[in-house]
Amino acid sequence: MTPANPTRPPGRYDDARRRPRPLGVAAIVVLAAAFVAWVLWAALDAATPDVRSQLQSFTVVDESQVRVQVQATADRRSPVGCTVQAEDRHHEPVGVTRVTLPAGNEDTRAATAVVRTRSRAVTAILVGCRLDRARPAGSAHEFSG
Question: pTM for the complete prediction?
Answer without folding.
Answer: 0.60
